[in-house]
Inverse folding.
């Protein structure tokens, strides 16, 4: 077991404002693992332009797309049928906010 002793805290503490929380959104990918298509779903999304990228484990971008989201619940399908089996990282960006998730292609 271990215990922290003599822990000092700074006098000034930063915090996240309500605006930052309001701009957050969630992304999910299913089915996982995938065979031919994955559905990318945004939850609590703000309307606007999003950049979607998918990378393999070597960091190579295997797919990129621009999405125009009109409402808080948005979904799109990505064809992965011709991709090599393995693990992929999906990155979704909007106005400096980034969300990532991982999925497996069988």
């Amino acid at each position: 077991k271990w215990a922290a002793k003599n822990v000092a805290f700074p006098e000034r503490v930063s915090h996240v404002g309500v605006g930052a929380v309001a701009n957050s959104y969630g992304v999910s990918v299913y089915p996982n693992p995938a065979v031919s298509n994955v559905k990318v779903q945004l939850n609590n999304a703000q309307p606007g332009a999003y950049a979607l990228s998918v990378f393999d484990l070597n960091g190579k971008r295997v797919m990129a797309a621009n999405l125009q989201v009109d409402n808080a619940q948005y979904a799109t399908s990505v064809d992965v049928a011709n991709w090599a089996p393995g693990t992929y990282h999906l990155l979704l960006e909007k106005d400096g906010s980034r969300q990532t998730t991982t999925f497996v292609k069988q």
